[in-house]
Amino acid sequence: MEKNVRDFFEQAYTLNAFQALLGIDSTTGQFREVQNWIVEEAKRLGYAPRETHKGGVIVDLGGEGDPLVISAHLDDIGLMVRKINADGTLNVCNVGGLYPFYCMTENVRVYTGDGQVYTGTVCRTPNSVHVTEEELRATPGDYRKNVCVVLDMPVHSAAETRALGVETGDMIALEPRFTLSNGYIKSRFVDDKACVAVLLNVMKTIKERNLTLRRKVYAYFACYEEIGHGTTYLPADTKDFLALDIAPTGPDQNSEEHLVSIFCKDSRFPYHYEMTAELRETAKRAGVDYVMDIFTPHYGTDGDASVTAGYDIRHAAIGPGTANSHGYERTHIDGLRNTYALTLAYILPQFKP
Asked: Are residues 70 and 83 in the same domain?
């Protein structure tokens, strides 16, 4: 190619798509609006997307033979109203892996069944350090016992809150709080809307540069990854599956925010050894900055869901190094660029391993 695949990366497009996706609350199960946005963007890029029945979008990117699915998920972790407390506050439970210590004091939006949206805050109870005994301040946050959502409404009883239309089962979305500084991207839901933006950039490049793919490729925008069944349905002809998801950083990890990680294993089982080796060789051939890493004890991707659903496929995963997973996350634009470059190189004939 006339340039390195890294140079095809469009930073402005990727960041704009990421921020647009962040602007759509999509706690797992609350998929319709974000799905509609993906459908319209795929059409704008020149594709013909199709929607799955339960929620999700599949796009045929072209190519012939041995179909590869590349996934990135649209759903976010969040909260749900469990019950309404006597004082009008909301007792909540998590949707996906959202722990109390990662969301206390966060601003939220509560979506009622009749279409109302109310703002609020995740609070400890008692909620003020100055008037809380030491032993209570030292107690860990627990959704069942001492964490609630306080609505930005003048309510003081369960009846007053119910009169607003709030009820058990209502979805609660957290404020993303996106910011960009020196190339570092800080926001909730880097997992996985940043990877969705990367996949859209790959799709944009294929169309605008009229690239020939070395095999048939589907882009799959899944809606239930955070609860484990995002891609338990696949196109019947799928041979291989590549998940784009975050690579959590930590003291025992190789992953780093400027790099793309190739996953060797997660908490469920190893990724397909031969497919993982192909990705490693592709990264070398394409000059992509990468590391190999293993993610345990609490990690999995949509590729795992497809394998455990019984599909006879190879599965692998890659993604940008990301700090503070399932909290206020941080990655770097270089990590997104390298994820883009490896994804694109893997489906182009000149980099075939």
From this structure: no
Q: Is the pTM of this model over 0.70?
A: yes
CATH of the domain at 149: 2.40.30.40
Cα(67)–Cα(203) distance, rounded to whole angstroms?
16
Which of 41, 133, 175, 225 does the annotation list as catalytic? 225
Q: Does residue 263 belong to any structural domain of this protein?
A: yes
> What confidence tens digit (pLDDT) does each residue in 117-176 have?
999 999 998 888 877 777 767 788 999 999 999 999 999 999 999 999 999 999 999 999
Domain end residue (candidates: 128, 143, 174): 174
Query: 226 and 122, same structural domain?
Result: no
225 is catalytic: yes
* Cα–Cα distance, 17 to 62 (Å, whole number): 22
Long-range contacts of 45-50 (CB under 8 A, 24+ apart): 45/200, 45/203, 45/204, 45/207, 46/207, 47/203, 47/207
Q: How far apart are the first and last CA of the chain?
A: 16
Q: Among 174, 199, 216, which residue terminates a domain? A: 174
If one counts the domains in the chain, the total is 2
Strands 240-244 and 314-322, sheet pairing = parallel
Tens digit of each residue's pLDDT (9 = 90 or more) over 267-301: 999 999 999 999 999 999 999 999 999 999 999 99
Sign of the CA dihedral running 15, 17, 19, 21: negative
The answer to whether residues 93 and 46 belong to one domain is no
**126 & 265 share domain:** no
Q: With 0-12 CB in 10 A as exposed, 13-18 as middle and 19+ as buried, what is 333? A: buried
Give the domain extent around 108: 78-174
